[in-house]
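Annex B, item 7. Sequence and structure tokens for protein A, then protein B.
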Amino acid sequence: MRNRCSPISDTTIMASAGAQCNHVNHVATQLPYAITVAAVSFVCFIIAGLIRNWLICLPIGIL
């Protein structure tokens, strides 16, 4: 997911060209997914710093 929301990424450019859609529209459709993953990762990172036990943090992150 790291390159899907970057407008200058080669994979993003190729994906929008392959789908024959507007490049800016393609980037805009990928932003909700990238923002969701970033938010969940941030919360899990904070929880992992507080709990410090991977056996507890991993199931929380998966949920």
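Protein B:
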Amino acid sequence: MWRELRADVAAIAERDPACRSALEAWFCYPGLHALLTYRVAHRLHRARLFLAARILSQLARWLTGVEIHPGARIGSGVFIDHGMGVVIGETAEVGDGTTLYQGVTLGGTGKERGKRHPTLGRDVLVGVGAKVLGSVTVGDGSRIGAGAVVVSPVPPNCTVVGVPGRVVRQDGRRVAGSDLRQVDLPDPVAAEVRALLRQVEALERRVAELESELAAEGCCATRCAQ
């Protein structure tokens, strides 16, 4: 466990330029505190002390804002940056060297039993607010863009963006038919709002046309009466 924690501290120093010392990592990084508590709770879980493990994980959730089920499997050198809102489910697996940003969810898709949470390979990066759902595998070295929702397997060394998530780069090359960048994520809500606005504008134009026609008919009727 201590070997894993030393690797976690080294990961913070390596990947976060704001970290100036190992002492700062130990005292000022809630993601590290959550991992420390998880590693103790995981041992309790493996010893079948399930209630004690869950109580400890809930305590860590209250203190850090990071919720990690003690049944999850997390490798060494993992960096949970900022951490608030991160959720890692019971059967999730996180490989060595992985980075998770705030708001990330490694969750299930229903109430099925057995393996129902994602498996992340080594050196995976999951961006702010991204969701990886279900028993899917994200290959080594892949990157999940901020806000993406991943519900299908991702090959190694890929970049995934969008809702639902789709591969836009693989092995450093842009995937054919994809012109999305990680900073230009699709927004389905905004797309629906724009479609509604277009419909409203079309209806307003039609109403104006009908009003003009009625006004013209009224003038004709008035002249005929005279």
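Comment on protein B: Residues 187-226 form one domain.
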